Amino acid sequence: KKRIAVMTSGGDAPGMCAVVRAVVRAGIYYDCEVYGCYEGYSGLVQGGDLLRKMDWDDVRGWLSLGGTLIGTARCMEFKERWGRLKAAKNMVLRGIDALVVCGGDGSLTGADLFRSEWPSLLEELVATGELSAEQTAKYRHLTIVGLVGSIDNDMASTDNTIGAYSSLERICEMVDYIDSTAASHSRAFVVEVMGRHCGWLGLMAGISCGADAIFIPERPPSAEGWREELKKVCLRHREKGRRKTTVIVAEGALDDELQPITSQQVKDCLVEIGLDTRITTLGHVQRGGSAVAFDRMLATMQGVDAVRAVLESTPDTPSPMIGIVDGKIVRQPLMEAVKLTKSVATAIAAKKFDEAMGLRDSTFKESYANFLDISKHDDGSQ
Ligand code: F6P
Asked: Cys-Cys crosslink for 35: which of 5, 80, 82, 255, Cβ 3.0 to 4.6 Å?
């Protein structure tokens, strides 16, 4: 029987519980045994109760839950070779030779590194007497399958990451709340949203909530002109009769000199044109709470495909990442997707912003173009 361990790693995202549920149940359906690896990579390193078998009933009710019930953590030990040796030993002792990791690009890179080191880790464990040659003989090859769980939608080669739409939904709900008080007082609000180095949440929230302006890292405005431009747009909307002003700022927003654009700077501009302005930083409410239908569906379909990918993997095929492109569940070489994701940062650093947009994915690029078009004919209404 194939033994698969499933883990969630990095920042939690709504839909991670649904992933674990899908892997456990699809695993059982395909006659495998599934182990829950608790607290991210710490579960592998520490073993014991943090690496334990899961049954069908253990994941009952997990489909809609937010967060991750098997925990997630930043594991420093796994970054060290001795930590990975302990992890390999724990896996061999339990007969586990496949790992399904749901996390961001850092967690998935760690998994792929572990796979490439696996034969040498086993050799070292035998050489140091931690395991016998007979114990390791059956476990020559480690299978890794990646699923992307991240509210930021920040992975290239997939249209959506698990959790992004739940987070977007939450942001829209919050902005709707803010809008009613803003319009009552005729106030301006600067709403800061998450997304670290990726502006997808900011962009989509801006479109979905009819914001006056959006600041995201991939499309930085001119360092010299953004303040005046912002004031002009917001004043024009006011003159057309809008009673509220909403500006969305992604936490990683930059200008074209790569200097951060902060919510406070944006607020200062709005105050200068006479608007009574407040800043709301949405923070972790964006990451918690239950998963929207799309994320439940995505997590379930991808979790099932992850088990299939484990069963179909060979020692020669690169580790796959399960993605979704044009509505279809697809498998991509994990490290190629990670490399493309990293080149977004490189393109931004080289001030090649169009390239950065293109590298992220086509959906992102097209949505942005559409938005620009809309804003050109904007009459200030929502
Ligand atoms: O990557 C997910 C994310 O929520 C980012 O949007 C945000 O910058 C970061 O994690 C916050 O991390 P932490 O929860 O460690 O503060």
From this structure: 5
Query: Which protein residues touch ligand 1 with a CB less than 6 Å away?
Result: 11, 150-152, 194-196, 251, 287
Angle formed by the axes of helices 200-209 and 362-376, to 10°?
40
Amino acid identity, residue 137?
A
Annotated binding residues for substrate, written as ranges, equal 150-152, 187, 194-196, 251, 278, 284-287
Which of 72, 152, 203 gets mutated to test ligand 1 (max ligand atoms within 8 A of its CB)?
Answer: 152
One-letter amino acid for residue 197 of the chain:
H
Q: How far apart are CA 194 and CA 286, in angstroms?
A: 7
DSSP letters, 250-314, are ETT-B-TTS-B--HHHHHHHHHHTT--EEEEE-GGGGT-SPPPHHHHHHHHHHHHHHHHHHHH--
Report pLDDT digits (tens) over 108-140: 999 999 999 999 999 999 999 999 999 999 999
Q: What's the CA-to-centroid distance between 93 and ligand 1, angstroms? A: 34
CA–CA distance, 249 with 193 (Å, rounded to integer):
6
Q: What is the pLDDT of residues 207-223, one digit of tens each?
A: 999 999 999 998 899 99
For the chain, helix (H) and strand (E) counts, in that order, are: 13, 11
Predicted TM-score (pTM) of this structure? 0.95
CB 77 within 8 A of CB 83: yes
* d(CA 78, ligand 1 centre) in Å: 20
Unique residue bearing structure tokens 């992975």: 155
The 3-class secondary structure across 82-94, one letter per residue, is: HHHHHHHHHHHHH
Token duo for residue 309: 């990918």
Nearest CA, atom 6, ligand 1: 195
Q: Select from 67, 32, 65 the least CA-distant residue to 308.
A: 32
CA dist 106 and 291 (Å) reads: 23
Q: Is 311 helix (H, G, I), strand (E, B) or coil?
A: helix
ipTM: 0.96
Three-state SS at 208: helix
Catalytic residue among 152, 154, 212, 295: 152
What residue type is assigned to position 273 of the chain? I
Residue minimizing CA distance to atom 7 of ligand 1 = 196
DSSP label of 162: B
The question of whether 152 is a catalytic residue gets the answer yes
